[in-house]
Amino acid sequence: MGDLAMDPRVYGPRTNALVLKHNEVVEFIFNNREWLPHPFHMHGHVFQIIEYGPASLLFEDPEAPKNIPTVRASGSPMRRDTILVPAYHYIKFRVRADNPGVWLFDCHLDSHFVLGMGMAIIEAPDVLQKRQMVPPEMHQFCRLQGFPVSGNAAGNGGLDFTGLPKQPAIITKNTTSA
Question: What is the pLDDT of residue 59?
Answer without folding.
Answer: 57
